Amino acid sequence: FGYEVLDANTYAAWEVDYLKEDSCYAIGSNITVAFAEYAVMRDALNATNRPIFFSLCHGTPKYGPIGMSLGNSWRIGTDDNSWQHILDDIDTNAQYELHRYSGRGGWNDPCLLLANGPHAVITPAQSRAQFSMWAVMSSPLLISSDIRNISQYVLETYTNRLVIDVNQDPAGKQGYRVQGGNLALNATSTTNIWSRELIDGSRAMVFLNVGSSTVKMTCDEECFNNAGFYDGVMVQVYDLWQEN
């Protein structure tokens, strides 16, 4: 603190591309202080004329409305070191309608991708479900694992070009929940359907089942309307994982 200009110039000289700054869980009135301090670093980075991605780390949905003015991404929830925490962050994104604040240049950050590497905390199927959700929520794709030791299945997950294209869609519109309730925060359901509008007018959709058994999921008329389809439209469906 107090050396932002020196630090920013040093990072630029080092050709740094990504900077993450942590408010160390500032709460209450300290959130306002954190916002002000982030702004100081933002201005210092901008003054270097080097495009350095500025990531704000805290962990509260309160960053949503102001995040875009301070940085390029902002943490919205707890550290996701378990499947439960992943579901918490999905719920937070939906419950607070944080898609309203995300767009080109600034993104809600629900934390890291958890691979099933040597310190596995989620299953391979959960890893793929998380990657699908992070794509439709236009979340930063940051891998928290030793990539030298992840399984072939997870490697195929993290290198699926079609799903990455959804995440990187130029329109920059974040997806939102169109059916289902909370999965972890006062859970009301075990299924969700999410939709994201892409630049060509199509929709990327995720049908997420976090229950312990297989279920049949149906996107009814209300769901279709919420997803952005109009009455009578004919749709073609393409599975980005099966590629058919």
Tell me briefly what this model is.
With 244 residues, the protein is an alpha/beta fold. 34% of the residues lie in helices and 16% in strands. The relative contact order is 0.10.
Question: Taking all residues together, what is the mean pLDDT?
Answer: 93
The low-confidence runs, each spanning 5 or more residues with pLDDT under 50, are none
Q: Count of DSSP E strands?
A: 9
Number of helices: 8
Radius of gyration: 19 Å
Sheet-strand content, in percent, reads 15-25%
SSE pattern, N- to C-terminal? HEHEHEHEEHEHHEEEH
Polypeptide structure, described:
- The chain is of the alpha/beta class.
- It has eight helices and nine strands.
- The strands form three sheets. Strands 1-2-3-4 form a four-stranded parallel β-sheet, covered by helices on one side.
- The protein is globular, with a radius of gyration of 19 Å.
- The termini are far apart.
How are the SSEs placed, and which strands pair?
Blueprint: H1 4-13, E1 18-22, H2 30-47, E2 53-57, H3 64-70, E3 73-75, H4 83-95, E4 107-109, E5 113-114, H5 124-136, E6 143-144, H6 152-158, H7 161-167, E7 176-180, E8 191-197, E9 203-209, H8 221-227
Parallel strand pairs: 1-2, 2-3, 3-4, 5-6
Antiparallel strand pairs: 7-8, 8-9
Helix pairs in contact: 1-2, 5-6, 5-7
Sum up the structure in keywords.
244 residues, alpha/beta, 4-stranded parallel sheet, 3-stranded antiparallel sheet, globular
